Amino acid sequence: MTQSDTKKIKVLFICTGNTARSQMAQTLLEARGADRFEVVSAGLEPGVLNPLTVKVLSEKGMKTDHLYAKGVKPLIAEHFHYVITVCDRAEASCPIFPNARYRMSWPFEDPAAAVGSEEEKLAVFRRVRDEIDVEIQSWLRSQA
User: Fold this and answer.
1) Which of 12, 57, 87, 136 is catalytic?
2) What does the pLDDT look like over 129-141, one tens digit per residue?
3) pTM above 0.85, yes or no
4) Is 87 a catalytic residue?
5) Domains contained in the chain, CATH given
6) Measured between alpha carbons, how far is residue 122 from residues 29, 73, 78 in Å?
7) Of 11, 12, 14, 15, which residue is the catalytic one?
8) Cα 25 from chain centroid?
9) Cα–Cα distance for residue pair 99/29, rounded to 1 Å
């Protein structure tokens, strides 16, 4: 870890499975604020990264090769400036992070629950991605 890394604001995004919303939030914040933030995501019950998550992030030219679903338990003792839940279930069941300064809730619809054709599912993933991006950009303006 370099000297500049120690000054970055550490952010943890949490959702239920760490397969879509929290991965999108992590990737979008990395892209929008990489010089200021160290970002990780995790799930209460980690599943498998949804391929549609990778697809909609890649459409925006974002790197996804580092993404994989992981659980929150190994992160509980870490120091975070912000712990942000991105779904209602994660907010209701989120463990206490004793070394986190702030906890926030940004609930978004679960795109993995979308039904229909692949194109219909992709439309939901794109919409949720864009909603998360709007929230992140608004939050970044408030951090300036």
Assistant:
1) 87
2) 999 999 999 999 9
3) yes
4) yes
5) 3-143 (3.40.50.2300)
6) 21, 31, 34
7) 15
8) 3
9) 21
